[in-house]
């Protein structure tokens, strides 16, 4: 009974976290209207997030300090570097070359990558139920965004490659999270990893950019603050908490809800059209996630 309750809480946390994370894509598209570069937008997102992560890190302690080795801190540096720095950077760059619909389809191969990476490096078994759930949700994602695909976009191959790298690096981060969270605890691990990511972005700006970041319209900074808190800080802790309860593989499958929430947010916020085909695809995705969560509760 207690385990079932923990699973239910994990599912709720994962769904809320995924929906909040997906709001980032809408905010990015809104910010790009002001001719801001992807590097500066990412800098705002993580710089505004950094003080919160620093405060939380100072106020919390590791879950099992006796189990932590020096090498574990090196792994945090690694996962922080690739998880929210490289994954976010590749995603922001890719969105400059391809439509959000194609980006969603490519990006959400990461549940499959999570299963493969977990199988190869952690010897985690891949169940038939997980494969079926991934198949269902991915079919739904493709149907949802099929009408938005425009394969004659300039530099589409570069955009596709960048988004694939984003999916791969994020999948590696999720697997690493499932491994390190039991040692550090949800809050500490997430804070440390995100602090590393934030400093990576700031260092990149200082070394390779140093462009003026004070002359953008006020709307850009407001979007940066909203992106930092609602689409970065809050969901980062929610997803980590969900991983600690459900495992990286199941959380990754629930992550397929992201494309659905993206089109719904775009419909309400950006006034984009919502077609019958998208509604059908969204329904299929939700069914696949329901299949996953139902099996997780009964297992």
Automatic annotation (TrEMBL):
Its main location: membrane. Signal peptide: none annotated. The keyword Ion transport does not apply. It is found in: Membrane. The keyword Nucleotide-binding does not apply. Pfam families: EamA. InterPro entries: AA-Vitamin_Transporters, EamA_dom, EmrE-like. Residues 9-145, 158-292 form the EamA domain. The chain crosses the membrane at residues 7-28, 40-60, 72-93, 105-122, 131-149, 155-175, 187-208, 220-239, 251-270, 276-293. Coiled coil: none annotated. It is a multi-pass membrane protein. Keywords: Membrane, Transmembrane, Transmembrane helix. PANTHER family: EAMA DOMAIN-CONTAINING PROTEIN (PTHR32322:SF2), INNER MEMBRANE TRANSPORTER (PTHR32322). Belongs to the EamA transporter family. This is DMT family transporter.
């Amino acid at each position: 009974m207690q385990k079932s309750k923990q699973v239910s809480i994990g599912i709720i946390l994962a769904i809320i976290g995924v929906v909040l994370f997906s709001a980032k894509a809408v905010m990015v598209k809104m910010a790009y209207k002001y001719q801001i570069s992807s590097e500066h937008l990412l800098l705002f997102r993580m710089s505004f997030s950094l003080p919160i992560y620093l405060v939380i890190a100072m106020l919390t302690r590791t879950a099992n300090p006796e189990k932590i080795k020096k090498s574990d801190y090196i792994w945090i540096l690694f996962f922080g570097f690739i998880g929210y720095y490289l994954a976010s950077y590749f995603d922001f760059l890719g969105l400059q070359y391809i439509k959000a619909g194609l980006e969603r389809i490519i990006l959400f191969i990461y549940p499959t990558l999570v299963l493969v990476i977990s199988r190869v490096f952690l010897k985690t078994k891949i169940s038939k139920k997980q494969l079926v759930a991934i198949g269902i949700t991915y079919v739904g994602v493709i149907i949802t965004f099929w009408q938005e695909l425009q394969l004659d976009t300039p530099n589409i191959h570069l955009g596709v490659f960048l988004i694939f790298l984003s999916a791969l690096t994020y999948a590696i981060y999720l697997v690493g999270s499932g491994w390190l969270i039991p040692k550090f605890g949800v809050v500490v691990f997430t804070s440390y990893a995100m602090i590393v990511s934030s400093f990576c972005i700031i260092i990149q700006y200082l070394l390779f950019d140093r462009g003026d970041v004070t002359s953008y319209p006020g709307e850009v900074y407001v979007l940066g603050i909203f992106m930092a808190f609602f689409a970065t800080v809050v969901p980062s802790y929610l997803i980590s908490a969900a991983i600690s309860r459900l495992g990286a593989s199941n959380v990754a499958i629930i992550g397929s809800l992201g494309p659905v929430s993206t089109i719904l947010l775009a419909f309400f916020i950006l006034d984009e059209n919502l077609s019958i085909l998208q509604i059908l695809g969204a329904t299929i995705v939700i069914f696949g996630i329901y299949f996953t969560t139902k099996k997780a509760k009964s297992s």
